[in-house]
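ok so for the tutorial part 2 we go from a plain amino acid sequence to predicted structure tokens. step 1 is just haveing the sequence, like this:
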Amino acid sequence: MIIRSEPVPPGRDGRGSAPPPESAQPGDRFSAAPKDTLGLMPPAVRRDGGRPGDAPSVPPVATPIIVWKVDGHLDRFYLPVKPAEGPPGVMIVDCGTPRSWLHSFGEGAEWVEGAHRATIAGRGYVLPGRRVPPFDEAEGLPQKIIGAVGNDFLLAGSVIFDVPGTSMTRLPADAALPPTDGWHVFAVEIVNGMIFLDAELDGAIRRVQLDSGAPASILLRDAGDADDAEASGRDVLGNALAVRKSSGTFKGRTVPLWKMRTFPHLEAVGAATGQKLEGILGLSSLGQKRIVITQTRLFLEP
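step 2 — the prediction. this is what the tokens look like for a chain of 302 residues:
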């Protein structure tokens, strides 16, 4: 899921750059599927029997992404997208959501299947449209944020994020991974297209959702220390969130940590998926090197 802090600070360092993808090719359809209020569902099934985002049967190619940092910490990954109508933009890379989507503006249903055609990473897709409040734009971002790419695209196989190389590589599920000796390794569980794991965050083992759409890790039911700075935020639906911004520890590093007494959307996700969630493992906790996500494991290069 996408968490927004207000105001959005500029990406002051570590910015990548990425050209827009090539023009659309005949490609994949993110097929119609029932939509509940949380958008919780397994990855959609293509009409030809495959899953949208299935890695093509050619050697994997690294796709440029924009690696956005704030105060030296990872804040967002952005993937260029070229809609059939309108100017090119970027999508937030969000492994906290099952479905990929593009913004739909104006009046109408919150979720419309087959609303947009677009090219992502050189392949043509038909994507659902979602009516949510416009994203706050980070100062200096070269293109407008017009949607999010979710696990129907990312977890058709495995995905490698190379932070120093500002690239993303998708692999078929049976493809060999790079050597990961000495890396931090976590078993993950995928439920309804969302990723869950146990991780030691700020000194305790916690059940968390893996969410690259959240810039910082989050702990629930913790008001924070008295000297924590108070802040406000919003979820992707525009609902206000009361946040205390602090710091914590993860794998020997000090990482940004947001503390909330309550986060209704995350609590609803936990209830719908049978997970007793204590928080989120956000993007800035995942390190500054390579990040590998498969259908069974999370690998973090130390």
